[in-house]
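Intended use. Records like the one below are meant for learning the mapping from a protein sequence to its folded structure. Do not use them to infer anything beyond what is encoded.
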Amino acid sequence: MKLAVFDFDSTLMQGETLEYIAKEYNIEPLMKQITTEAMEGKIDFFESLTKRVALLKGAQESKVKKICENLPYTKGAKETIKELKSMGYKVVCFSGGYETATIPAQKTLGYDAQFSNILHFKNGEMTGLVGGEMMFSDSKGKMLKRLQLLFDVKQSDTMVVGDGANDLSMFQYSDMRVAFCSKPILKEHANIIIENKDLTEILNYI
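Structure written out for the chain above:
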């Protein structure tokens, strides 16, 4: 068995989920500023995550879910996942984002499993609270190691793809480390760098 792990926001999907929601509530600039600082590794990921979600306290659940179900996916995402699966890869999405987005995307893009965070809703509105499996800067690396142990997958049979600082923790457990249209901090540790927003380019390296 081989394992391919993709980040979601700005990798499988164009942009950041929370920024699409923030745009509906006229707070996109502030949201984008915090996101950028987190993806560049300038502030702690957990701190940035909780700050960003708190900004959306009171957002309507129905509106949030509708936005998350209609996000624009990156060119070549579906085709790349299909091809990797035909090569014997299990394809997984690790997201510091939210299952309101990654679960609908799984149906469209076809990856095998997703691990993400969960927005808390009460009485039809966001409470500004968040929990889940990808809350910290090292969460993706820890989850990747667990999957490798569970399925007996070697580091040499693992590929990871991401764009931001919170993807860095995966790199130590993978021989194929893809920085996809990424921040400089990730490029420094990658051995495959793709600048064109077309995920099928990954297939040229396999």
